[in-house]
Amino acid sequence: MSPRLMSLLAAAGFMLSGCATIFDTVDSLNPFTSAGPKKAELKPIVASLDVRTVWSASAGKAGDYTFAPAVVGDAVYVAGRDGAIQKLVAGKAVWKINAGQPVSAGVGANERLVVVGTPKGEVLAFSAEDGKLLWRAPVSSEVLAAPVVGAEGVAVKSGDNRVFLLDAADGGRKWVYQRSTPALSVRSAGAPIFADRFIFVGFPGGKLVALAIQNGAPVWEGAVALPKGATELDRVADIVATPVIDGTQICAVAFQGRVACFDMSQGGAMIWSRDVSSAAGLALDGRYLFVTDERGAVHALDRLSGSSLWKQDKLLNRRVSAPAVRRGNVAVADAEGIVHFLSREDGSFVARQKTDGTPVRTSVQPLGSGFLVQTSGGNVSLIEPQ
Questions:
Q1: CB neighbour list of residue 180: distance below 8 Å, 6 or more residues apart
Q2: Is pTM, for the whole model, over 0.85?
Q3: pLDDT tens digit string along 263-289?
Q4: Which of 66, 123, 258, 304 is the most exposed place for a label (fewest CB within 10 A)?
Q5: What's the burial of 176, exposed, middle or buried (CB within 10 Å: 0-12/13-18/19+)?
Q6: Where are the domains of the chain?
Q7: Distance CA 15, CA 348 (A)
Q8: Quick one: fold of 40-61+278-386?
Q9: What is the pLDDT of residues 57-101, one digit of tens each?
């Protein structure tokens, strides 16, 4: 395996699973050490946008896992590694419970349910009203991706790349989908996504698959990446971020692969693809697709053609998160817990805001007129441009 690939895997905070030997030398490969690529130093900017932290709360530390807030109406649900789960409204806890065991993924929620996963392969569902435990259901291995609550049930992707649809009422298993995977794959926190009559899931090997909600049968699959290289490690080309959907267009990006968009109304026909490798993720708006690549550069692409509109490369090797876009601003966060605001039109820096100084591993999320950020240190903040 090339030194570059080893550094990228360490930088992303991922380990290899399947038949692989888990790397115990992540620290020595970390780009924040002298052995890894040097992170870009932040140069002063002339802020053209005022931002403020509207509220801040503590969700508990993430440990080695990735936790993302779930937003339902004016409520924000958060979780931490120690099992603490909270419902926040305007940054204040409406209720706070402890799951009674460590959790490894979350949060998924709707108006009725709040769902998390555990390292032991359990899915726990709580009442959104008061946090009371409603049911628990086993899956096949640890849960790394946040469960997703839809009208048809709770979709869960386990660490061994099986996909389960559980009954929202009692956790009963409706179906499970399993496919063969490469000998090596990147541990993924990319969640499934509901759309129309399907559940879309990204898999190792660069495949984006549409599963029928009714029975879990694969309806179509799109090749986001084509594994290539001399060794198994060089051929790692996995979709590790959650796909994004807007209208009939669905887009996904693969580590050591491409970003690709497909037309759901045309049976999953590919609209375009472009060579961009990412383990962070992407975002769509009415005109652009935004993606953070494996080195930390943020790209704006035309969502209809894939042509490049701008590239912001002043954050290289800072472990930059997936982007979020709202009201002309693109927000990303880095391994020092700094949120960077970019102009949607040209990618220039317009503002910065610090959080608690710990890495942001999950996507920044739009919330109201601001952006919601959860750090690995457990800080959850709503940051709003003025």
A1: none
A2: yes
A3: 999 999 999 999 999 999 999 999 999
A4: 304
A5: middle
A6: 1-38, 40-61+278-386, 66-188
A7: 33
A8: Methylamine Dehydrogenase; Chain H (2.130.10)
A9: 999 999 999 999 999 999 999 999 999 999 999 999 999 999 999
